[in-house]
Specification:
Structural class: alpha/beta
Oligomer: single chain
Distance between the termini: 55 Å
CATH topology of the largest domain: Alpha/beta knot
Number of domains: 2
Radius of gyration: 20 Å
CATH superfamily of the largest domain: SPOUT methyltransferase, trefoil knot domain
Mean pLDDT: 93
Low-confidence stretches: none
Largest sheet: 7 strands, parallel
Helix content: 25-40%
CATH class of the largest domain: Alpha Beta
Number of strands: 12
């Protein structure tokens, strides 16, 4: 049976609110996700929250009822609260009526089994949570195995990044590594590293891509460092027919991912 919390001073409210800060997320090993759609995606992927907050006076919804029941059956806690407290937790002016607190995933690169999928996405020094969310959603759409974050990237468990993934955070594997760690791991097995660069001379549709393929996208402002480009098995470029010098990082990733899988589909 859900308990009720209506006081801002409640210790659990303060603890969960602190998860908006990266330091506290790391210390607690927890992160927040909000919205019935995202929590439903998590549930479908086999992830239930440790703690589920929901608006006590929200309209009944069968999916929310199932989330509450399954969370409690799994040993978690469901808490009925107020819209004001949900606002305090999420930081949004118009908070969702449900918010979950989840255990952070193990992002060690050694957990990735490249045999699980033919396509993987690798992002280097990605800084924008919106781009991270879009790339994860693209990965889900094309059936990629997951996203490997290289060097100093945006925290995938930040409130903004989780929100931008629209649930794909729970369907895609995520790993973090330094460039040196990633290269050593990649070269220890099969895999073709495909980089995109304005400096490349090969059109992105010209090569025949092998499986498994690792699409490497660089920082939004600076692209890939020269040494990283040199490590790629293939370095390709997309035609730029307009005035802009490049595509958005997430859009370029999507274009590249669909080119690769369309080759395989039509082979």
């Amino acid at each position: 049976m859900p308990r009720e919390i209506s006081a801002f001073s409640n210790p659990l409210v303060k603890r969960v609110r602190s998860l908006r800060d990266k330091k506290h997320r790391r210390e607690e090993g927890l992160f927040m996700a909000e919205g019935l759609r995202i929590l439903a995606e998590a549930r479908e992927a086999g992830h239930l929250p440790d703690t589920l907050f929901f608006a006590a006076k929200s309209a009944p919804h069968p999916l929310l009822d199932r989330l509450i029941a399954e969370t409690e059956a799994d040993g978690g806690e469901a808490i009925a609260t107020t819209p004001d407290i949900l606002h305090k937790l999420s930081g949004k002016d118009n908070p969702q009526t449900v918010l979950g607190v989840y255990r952070a995933f193990d992002t060690h690169l050694g957990r990735i089994d490249r045999a699980e999928a033919d396509l993987w996405i690798v992002a280097q020094a990605l800084r924008d949570p919106g781009n991270l969310g879009t790339i994860l959603r693209t990965g889900d759409a094309v059936g990629a195995g997951g996203l490997i974050l290289v060097d100093d990237c945006v925290d995938p468990f930040s409130v903004e990044a989780v929100r931008a993934t629209m649930g794909a955070l729970f369907t895609q594997r995520i790993a973090t590594a330094s460039w040196e760690e990633f290269v050593a791991w990649l070269r220890a097995g099969e895999g073709e590293l495909i980089g995109t660069s304005l400096a490349a001379t090969t059109d992105y549709q010209a090569p025949r891509y092998a499986r498994p393929a690792f699409i490497l996208v660089g920082n939004e402002a600076q692209g890939l460092p020269p040494a990283y480009e040199a490590e790629c098995d293939r370095l390709v470029r997309m035609p730029m027919l307009g005035k802009a010098d490049s595509l958005n990082a997430a859009v370029a990733t999507a274009v590249m991912a669909y080119e690769v899988i369309n080759q395989w589909r039509h082979a």
